[in-house]
Amino acid sequence: METGASAGPIEKSVSIASNDPAHPTQVLQVRADVQGDLHEMSSLNTRKSIFSLECQSCHVDEGVGKMGRELYQADCAMCHGSLDEADHVRALNGPRLAEDLAELRKMIAFGNERRAMPGFSTAAGGPLTDAQIDSLVDLFRKWEKKEKQRHNSRP
Questions:
Q1: CA-CA distance, 77 to 136, in Å (whole number)?
Q2: Do 143 and 93 form a contact (C-beta atoms < 8 A)?
């Protein structure tokens, strides 16, 4: 349900078309109490809260034991988009990919305060091991190489 900038109680009508000749259209009334954005509420201390017990089911648990593409989909895609989608503004699979992969590794490990991205390395209080971070950087090294080959093969 799109809530826009709403807050508090809202009500929306949803029409559903069916192949039932007796009831070709059903209307559902949906009521919700829209709460403030959890991420906005915790933005004062993002580094600490994103890995807290209340947030770890989304930001930690899904990536446990994963590497490379699976790890990206579990821990990174919620903010940066799928590796397969065309959203290159926020996705790391587009022209905004750090030109220097060492810099990318540093950003994943220790974060970027200007962009409210926390450090994901265990040294920075995050859940990722050095091997997991290296697997993400390697994923982008391969992605970048594939994109360069695709670009160079265009007529």
A1: 12
A2: yes
Domains, the chain, ordered by start: 1-36 (no CATH), 45-152 (1.10.760)
**pTM (global) more than 0.70:** no
What is the rounded CA–CA span in Å between residue 125 and residue 27?
A: 48
* CB-based contact 75:120 (threshold 8 Å): yes
CA–CA separation, 84 vs 92, rounded Å? 11
Name the strand (E) or helix (H) holding 32: strand 25-34
Q: Chain centroid to CA 44: how far?
A: 19
Largest CA distance in the chain: 63
Q: DSSP secondary structure string, 67-101?
A: -HHHHIIIIIHHHH--TTSS-TTT-TTSTTS-SSH
CA pair distance 8, 152, nearest whole angstrom: 52
**CA separation for the pair 107, 139 (Å, rounded):** 15
Q: Which helix (H) or strand (E) holds 136?
A: helix 130-152
The set of residues, in sequence order, having a beta carbon less than 8 Å from that of 42 and lying 6+ positions away, is 49, 50, 55
Q: Using 70 as the pLDDT threshold, list the residues of the chain that sit under it.
A: 1-7, 35-49, 85-99, 144-155
